[in-house]
Amino acid sequence: VQLVESGGGLAQPGGSLRLSCAASGFDFSQYTMSWHRQGPGKERELVARIGSFGVATNHADSVRGRFTISRANAKNTVYLQMNNLKFDDTAVYYCSAGAKWNTYDYWGQGTQVTVSS
């Protein structure tokens, strides 16, 4: 099983980034996919998740209206579009796959997002 995140980097406040997570080694279309983040000195937190069909989604209050999770089952890829970035969005962002809505069975290595002026 592999989950490989990409798309992180440096952005200015108010800017945008799009994260991608390429999955392999399991039946991607049957899994709930989620994004989590861990900022400096903070615990890891759930940012957003999306059901296997791409219909059901859930976003944390801190990112709702700014971030959007989506998936392309034909490409075994999940995305996180991040708009209007804020300093507090600085974190390592992790992709996760779960057999159920609230499980996180597989994890990627993470990609760094830094919001700085």
Task: Characterise this structure.
With 117 residues, the chain is mostly beta strands. It has no helices and eleven strands. The protein has strands at residues 2-6, 9-11, 17-24, 32-38, 45-50, 57-59, 67-72, 77-82, 91-98, 106-107, 111-115. The strands form two sheets. Strands 2, 4, 5, 6, 9, 10 and 11 form a seven-stranded mixed sheet that branches. The radius of gyration is 13 Å and the shape is globular. The model has no long low-confidence stretch (mean pLDDT 97).
Which labels suit this protein?
seven-stranded mixed β-sheet, mainly beta, 50% strand, 0% helix, 117 residues, globular, four-stranded antiparallel β-sheet
Which SSEs are present, and which pair or pack?
Elements: E1 2-6, E2 9-11, E3 17-24, E4 32-38, E5 45-50, E6 57-59, E7 67-72, E8 77-82, E9 91-98, E10 106-107, E11 111-115
